[in-house]
Amino acid sequence: MMLSLAPVAVLCLAFAGDVLAGDPPNRFHLVAWMGNAIAGCRKRCRFSSSPGRFAAGTALVIVGAVIMIGVGWSVERICAELPIWISVIVQAIVLKFTFAVRSLARAASMVAAALVNDQLDIARREVAYHLVSRDTSTLDASQVAAATIESVAENTSDSIVAPLFFYAVFGLPGALVYRFINTCDAMLGYHTDELEWFGKASARLDDLLNLIPARLTALAMLSIGLMDPYFRANRDDATRIWWRDHALTASPNAGHPMSAAAGVLGVSLEKEGHYRLGIELAEPTANSITGAIRLLWGTSMLAVLLLVGGLVLRVPV
User: Fold this and answer.
1) d(C-alpha 175, C-alpha 273), whole Å
2) Quick check: 204 and 189 in contact, CB under 8 A?
3) pTM for this model (two decimals)
């Protein structure tokens, strides 16, 4: 029974570690190592044709995923021979590398603080450096707040719920494979001449892997909106906004947590020329970012509780 409950302890300890300590420096961070490897492979791609670049990008994803399966499996096998408390700590440390709540909340807080202090240029730089890839140099305060909330909402799914979900279902190999493919998509999934085909395999796989987590995240956000008195004013509209607007984004998944967050927070989220979620709602402000951070923490904790419950139900009596 103790061994069967070990994944529960690993998940709880990893989440507690993130809450208390956050992320280590990049030189010690597994995801940073993944990013360096992906960037190195990108530089070494010598194919100029679309089929060649697609084949190279597909090979990168497959080889990287196989390596991550091997790493996760090896850690679990080694830990099986260790005392249970050491095994839990080691696996929790590895799992912690696959998700980040505290650092996401901190990045959003920095943008909100800059907006509160009327430091728009600093807010633009912070959101561009930590949260989005779009050009932020001409965004006004409301657009900066919207970009921040959109990123927090999407990353609640991609960077927290999804890796923990795949850990609960497939163990460390599942969490590591998800994190590798998601990192590939974050670095390569762009519609440019260089990356259109090189990043296509990772983008499509990332879409597939996030089908369930994105929708679970949206439902968890709506649940927090119902339970937390902070969001009381927007309860009647939240589900309607999510159901109506989730398909407005180009991504089949990002619109779910983003539109749910728009409804729960009672704000309109717009990326000019691409989408506008909650069109009839108020423009977001720095206070809206504060609400998004509260929603981030509430959703993350609810997701952990639900996944722990799922793991406990799998334990043989």
Assistant:
1) 34
2) no
3) 0.94
Q: How many CB atoms are located within 10 Å of the residue 302 CB?
A: 19
With CA atoms as reference, report the closest residue to 296 among 220, 238, 233.
Answer: 220
Cα dihedral 141, 294, 262, 99 sign = positive
Token pair for 29:
């961070």
- What distances in angstroms separate CA 62 from CA 68, 155, 307, one per listed residue? 10, 24, 27
SS3 89: helix
Q: How far apart are CA 284 and CA 262, in angstroms?
A: 9
- The CA–CA distances, whole Å, from 26 to 5, 32, 33 equal 31, 6, 8
Structure tokens at 25: 């420096």
Query: How many angstroms separate the first and last alpha carbons of the chain?
Result: 8
Both tokens assigned to 108: 């959003």
3-state secondary structure at position 78:
helix
Q: Which residues contact 92 (CB under 8 A, 6 or more apart)?
A: 9, 10, 11, 13, 14, 17
Please enumerate in sequence order all residues whose Cβ is within 8 A of that of 282, keeping only pairs 6 or more positions apart, or say none: 266, 267, 268
State residue 277 phi and psi, 5-degree precision.
Answer: -100, 135
Beta bridge mates, 127: none
Burial 172-211 (b: 16+ CB within 10 A, else e): bbbbbbbbbbbbbbbbbbeeeeebbbbbbbbbebbbebbe
Digit-coded pLDDT (tens) for 98-157: 999 999 999 999 999 999 999 999 999 999 999 998 889 999 999 999 999 999 999 999
Does residue 140 sit in helix, strand or coil? coil
Query: Which tens digit of pLDDT belongs to each residue from 254-283?
Result: 999 999 999 999 999 999 889 999 999 999
Cα dihedral 62, 151, 139, 291, rounded to 10, equals: 180
Residue appearing with tokens 């967050």: 261
Cα 301–chain centre separation: 14
